[in-house]
Amino acid sequence: MRMPLSRLVFACTLSLLATMSLSAQETAPKPTTAAEAPSRDTSYIDEDGAAHVTRVVPVPEDLSAEAQKALRRAEPDQGPPQSLAERRKGTDAYTARAREEWVKICPVTIEDRTIAGVPVHVVTPPDIPMGNHDKILLNLHGGGFNSDSGSYTESIPIAAYTKMKVIAVLYRLAPEYPFPAAVDDSVAVYKELLKVYKSEHIIIYGTSAGAILTGEVAVKLKQLGQPLPAGLGIFSGMGDFARDGDSMAIYGLRGFAGHLDPPVKGVHDPFYVGSTDSKDPVLSPVYADLRGMPPTLFLTSGRDLLLSGTANLHRAFLNAGADVRLVVFDALPHAFWYNPNLPEAIEANHIIADFFVKALAKNQPPIPPAKKVETRRVR
């Protein structure tokens, strides 16, 4: 019996900072029961400034009924961690179902190809307008840099809503291939696309790990002296592997639901970072020269574990003089726009599509006025 997608989507939405232990623990604490759950707010600030808090947070009533239902779903706060193999198996099953669900809403054709030696999905909507044939959207998928949770969920709705072709890059994954393998693969595909498309007709975007990768690729392209794309989309990302943002200590993948480990000091996601300095300007774009970055849309949500990371990277772009926009949805968890059953997800994808269409339209040559045709009266 197949579990409904709506029950899988949040659990299977994988982000960079959801890296699970690669070895199962022999014992695990028991989940909190209803009787043990705190019923009032508490707050204690220790001598180091660390906050020891509990909060009772109701579900906002202005969310859609579907979103409220998703937030009410219980998930144990304790349990054994997944192995990497289990995680990848679960992600593959989720993405197969997500593809089916999204294609029902947004009919597209999907072709598996190779560009510059890198495997990709080519997602094509029906009836592409003539003015969009010379434009391309480059998707760098999410999935914690160690799996693929987004190459379908991020490309299918965007291809349909923009009426443009999307190429989703299936870059090499950690821990087998740590940084900069994913950057190198993405840059290779972009450079190959430049042989066919003008840079001002390309958008690069991604969610979670793909959002982080989007910032990294943009910095790398600038370092290489390559022309930058017309715009970027950084959706629930971050740009600093040297420190965790505040939201990482508050939320897990499903916001307040599920397991959450206390933050620890040290390099963020060592499986991806590898031997690279965590303040390397490509790995962590907040330390890069971001002047000249193209117009960028940042998107996150109020219970997103990468809320702080997204806001901090947005501010770094803003301080560098970039044309940026930040959209934050209330109460929803990490990468909620993956879920085709949420009205808010449909809204978010339309916001993304609208930004891309307008960013590409800015670089269109003006339409020449129609020639005046002289007419003679026939006697």
Describe, in short, the structure shown.
With 379 residues, this protein is of the alpha/beta class. The chain has helices at residues 5-12, 65-72, 84-105, 156-162, 181-193, 209-224, 270-273, 307-319, 343-361, and strands at residues 42-45, 51-54, 109-115, 118-124, 136-140, 165-169, 202-207, 231-235, 296-303, 324-333.
Q: What is the CA–CA distance across the termini?
A: 81 Å
Average of per-residue pLDDT values: 89
Gross morphology: globular
Strand line-up of the largest beta sheet? 3-4-6-5-7-8-9-10
In the predicted model, the low-confidence regions spanning at least 5 consecutive residues are 1-26, 373-379
Which sequence of SSEs, written as H and E, runs from N to C? HEEHHEEEHEHEHEHEHEH
Number of strands: 10
Please give a structural write-up:
The N terminus and C terminus are likely disordered. This protein starts with a helix and ends in an 18-residue tail after the last helix. The chain is of the alpha/beta class and 379 residues long. Helix 5 packs across helix 6. Strand 1 and strand 2 form a beta hairpin. The protein contains nine helices and ten strands. Strands 3-4-6-5-7-8-9-10 form an eight-stranded mixed sheet, with helices on both faces. It has a two-stranded antiparallel sheet with strand order 1-2. The radius of gyration is 22 Å and the shape is globular. It is 29% helix and 16% strand.
